[in-house]
Amino acid sequence: MKKITMTAMATIMALGMTVAAQADIVIGATVSATGPASYLGDPEAKTLEMLTEKLNAEGGINGEKIKLVLYDDNGDPNKARTFATRLVEDDEVVAIIGGTTTGTSMSIIPVAEDAKVPFISLAGAIEIIDPVRKFVFKTPHTDRMACQKIFEDMKKQGITKIGLISGTDGFGASMEAQCKKVVGDYGIEIVAAETYGPQDADMTPQLTNLRGAKGIQAILNPGFGQGPSIVTRNYAQLGIDLPLYQSHGVASDGFIKLAGAKAAEGVRLPGTALIVSDLLKDDDPQKAVVVAYKTDFENKNNAAVSTFGGYAHDAFNILVDAIKRAGSTEPEAIRDAIEQTSGLVGTTGIVTMKPDDHLGLDLSAFRMLEIKDGKWTLIE
């Protein structure tokens, strides 16, 4: 078979066609490799392809190789649902990885639940796993956890009054709601709140309103995509002299590039060990895993590793581990094994699932980060 070039691969994915080799265990994926969330979905797609290739080169799972059926949903929830249905009905997959965004993940959930096929989401909103659904799991920390980690840091800084500027997309709206639910637990008051749309190109009016709010000591931006970068640039342009916190939804070098290193200076957010792998202590239980993934990804793709590719890395390894332990490729047996995952070291943390916890991470899995001189630094 002729080697597929990266250009050809991108064309195939854009057309929604499958990328796979003949094999025994069929795993499905639908991610946003192109479109407005491509900076999330592209590294996810590359990671799944890389890990599949590596596993098959090592002999697969118990001698059976993996067939990866990968679709690009372009960030469109309707396409994601269509591809999920195709994965189940036509491709007969044993499990689905994907749902780059909250919107696409929520559209895949009913398909997976109806078909009784395990689905591991790569999106952040807590609604994906709360309430717990039998066949639905996820790898990123939840937006509620991000709020809690941020508020822990604010409390340490003596911050008691803040403003919110939130995106109105699925992730932004969900995180805003979760932050409002838990903020009182930390003795912090939201004194003003503003929003912006996914297509907005200037948040100066909203930030001006927040700056004028009485007693405000910091501003938090629940959001992902280009919005937080615009907020950060406008923040600097207005000369707002208050701490700016962002969400884990922008924890990548791409955010610093879009916002500009000077504008992003001092921004704080919760992120994963993967972003600061070179700063981890040698005895950190995640160091070997994140360094190995970072090295493999960057050598293969000639591009910086990202948090979002890390979510796909963990989903793939959780699934492979479950199939091995299940000793079966029956979807329900795999589902049961995923739920029994214990002590699996990933890029996002050490995963231990339970029947009432289909994430398996706690706040200790988050690292609080700050941007200094255009680079990520650990502040704890």
Count structural domains. Answer: 2
User: Any idea of the CATH class of the largest domain?
Assistant: Alpha Beta
Rg on CA atoms, Å: 20 Å
Series of secondary-structure elements, N-terminal to C-terminal: HEHEHEHEEHEHEHEHEHHEHHHEEEE
Helix content: 40-55%
**Mean pLDDT, rounded to whole units?**
93
What descriptive keywords fit this protein?
17% strand; Rossmann fold; 2 domains; globular; 380 residues; 4-stranded parallel β-sheet; transport; amino-acid transport; 42% helix; signal; 14 strands; Peripla_BP_I; 13 helices; alpha/beta; 5-stranded parallel β-sheet; disordered N terminus
Short overview:
The protein has 380 residues and is of the alpha/beta class. It has 13 helices and 14 strands. It folds into 2 domains: 6-141 and 288-361, Response regulator (Rossmann fold); 143-271, Response regulator (Rossmann fold, 3-Layer(aba) Sandwich), CATH 3.40.50.
